[in-house]
């Protein structure tokens, strides 16, 4: 029961709670020491359990699941994938997934084959939920608790994660393409044009800071509005998008 989030209670603690219950007229009460981080994800594996959503810790868990990305920036794995050839990307993702699988099972990662089924490794609903929770901050992705059932081997999960991360990059470029098309079709007056250039300058400068530090020519500071605008204020639309493409390669 402890593995399912229902650890045994100390007798003294349980008796204190029962004595408090006897002082009231409440009926049909249950006394339990519940580890919600373990209990709720497994309990809600097949379907949501709205009756528990008002429990404070459950509400926090639901919020964390909806937005797993950390405020400290991109996960280290995502940083490693930038500018890395696809074959090496797949290797990095596979290694990251294998590390988390080993941590969940308490095994050495070297002994876990990429094509071995999670079922054969001893995974159940609890360890499946735990793996999904561990992979979320590593990848920056929202992963379902049914991950190992939908993708039954380590290699399958790694391929799925890699595809999700690659799709996120493709979506970014698609957004840039749409923006470039809108700019070409827009008839902006002088004030609106300057405001648009200023906002794009800030966004581009922040983007450059994210990718330049790893290339040795960024100093890690966040540019202010005047500095960002001065750097590329004279650039054409084509030069701006060319720079975006080059920095994200």
From TrEMBL:
Pfam families: PP-binding. Residues 218-227 have a biased composition (Basic and acidic residues). PROSITE patterns: CARRIER, PHOSPHOPANTETHEINE. GO terms for molecular function: fatty acid synthase activity; phosphopantetheine binding. InterPro entries: ACP-like_sf, PKS_NRPS_Biosynth_Enz, PKS_PP-bd, PP-bd_ACP, Ppantetheine_attach_site. Residues 88-165 form the Carrier domain. It comes from Streptomyces qinzhouensis. The keyword Phosphoprotein applies. This is Carrier domain-containing protein.
């Amino acid at each position: 029961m402890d593995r399912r989030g229902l650890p045994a209670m100390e007798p003294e603690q349980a008796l204190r709670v029962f004595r408090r219950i006897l002082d009231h007229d409440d009926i049909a009460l249950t006394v339990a020491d519940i580890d919600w981080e373990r209990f709720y994800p497994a309990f809600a594996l097949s379907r949501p359990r709205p009756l528990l959503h008002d429990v404070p810790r459950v509400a926090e868990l639901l919020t964390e699941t909806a937005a797993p990305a950390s405020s400290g920036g991109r996960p280290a794995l995502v940083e490693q994938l930038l500018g890395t050839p696809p074959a090496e990307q797949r290797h990095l993702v596979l290694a990251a997934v294998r590390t988390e699988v080993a941590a969940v099972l308490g095994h050495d990662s070297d002994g876990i084959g990429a094509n071995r089924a999670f079922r054969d490794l001893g995974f159940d609903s609890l360890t499946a939920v735990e793996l999904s929770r561990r992979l979320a901050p590593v990848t920056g992705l929202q992963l379902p608790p049914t991950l190992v059932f939908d993708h039954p081997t380590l290699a399958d999960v790694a391929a799925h994660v890699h595809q999700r991360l690659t799709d996120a990059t493709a979506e970014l470029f698609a957004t840039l393409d749409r923006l470039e098309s809108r700019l070409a079709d827009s008839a902006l007056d002088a004030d609106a044009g300057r405001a648009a250039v200023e906002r794009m300058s800030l966004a581009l400068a922040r983007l450059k800071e994210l990718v330049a530090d790893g290339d040795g020519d960024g100093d890690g500071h966040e540019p202010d509005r005047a500095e960002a605008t001065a750097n590329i204020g004279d650039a054409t639309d084509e030069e701006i998008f060319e720079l975006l493409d080059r920095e994200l390669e």
